[in-house]
Design goal:
Helix content: 25-40%
Strand content: 15-25%
Number of strands: 13
Radius of gyration: 20 Å
Distance between the termini: 42 Å
Largest sheet: 7 strands, mixed
Number of helices: 13
CATH superfamily of the largest domain: Type I PLP-dependent aspartate aminotransferase-like (Major domain)
Number of domains: 2
Bound molecules: pyridoxal-5'-phosphate
Oligomer: single chain
CATH architecture of the largest domain: 3-Layer(aba) Sandwich
Amino acid sequence: MFNFDEIVDRTKTPCEKWNKYKGADVIPAWVADMDFKSPPCVIEALQRRVAEGVFGYTDIDEETYGAILSFLKRHYNWEIQKEWLVFTHGVVSSMNVACLSVEGESVMTTTPIYPHFIKAPMHANKEVIAIAMKEENNRWTLDFEAMEEKINPTCKLFMLCNPYNPAGTVFTCKELEQLGAFCLKHDLTICSDEIHADLLLNQSTKHIPIASLSEALAKRSITLMAPSKTFNIAGLQASFAVIPDVELRKRFKKTMGSMVGGINLLGITALKAAYLGGDAWLGELRTYLAENLALVQAFVNRNPKLKLLDQEATFLAWIDATALHVKSPYEFFLQHGVGLSDGGPFGNAQYVRLNFGTQRTVLKAILERMQKAVDSL
Ligand SMILES: Cc1ncc(COP(=O)(O)O)c(C=O)c1O
């Protein structure tokens, strides 16, 4: 049993999440990291590595490759080859590299979305074709009709976020097959950000890497993964891209060149330890997060002016606050002592994103303050 209720005072370290409101009576619930300690196996591996006292340039050892291969096989039944892996210090950098590596003048993605899906194509001087997600069966999903309508021959890349930040969707096999068929039909490479893949909140839902569906899709895919969200090690900057096609991989590596650095040595230490020994911790984390989500859902259900569709993954709840009729729901809740993420940069300022990856007592305090805010109207 791991103790996710243990309070960790993150104001003692220069932590981005809690520093933002230092000195103010505001509980932060914004940036996507959790308030939990990482699994003991990760902390111990880091302590052992730090005790060695030499921190020069690092290599990736065979055990680390083995840890990744077996993690992907165990969790997603996805068999990859070690040659397909490209290590980077972050998924956002990799998204930018992907946009620069693939030809074409435009990139298709969906909205609302994690802002870097819009910024990365723009950095590569590409037009963004942003397709609004649609609501279906109380869940956010892809609008294939709109995608067919808006696609044009200048577009060569589709950027997918699965599981979806901010809407929490885990795309089903059928949805991914349909998306795959769309990408094959229009000759699109797929950059699939799967950083939240391990954080599924419902035992019956499975994460499927789109690249695992067929050889044809594997050949046109760049899958971005990381242990950072799962094991709360985002500050260690460790991630990897899985690129099965040799030509696409070469282009990706060439674009990285000497501009985008590789993985951090403590990051790779943590990654290996987490993938080898973190399964039990992860299982308990998912149960804890699902129970936290139930509290958030119950709070939303008590307040008919708020809305939350089915949240299948992540510790980020995408709450529609349109019916509150306040100018900025983000500012409104901030005035009542809760620092949520503003939905504006994601594509809809009438929404807020609540990070419920925190201790239950902290979450309860957040929801109490939000309730007082709603009651004040
Ligand atoms: C979908 C998604 N991709 C990427 C990132 C950031 O990844 P990294 O810290 O590896 O750049 C986040 C962080 O919130 C995210 O939600």
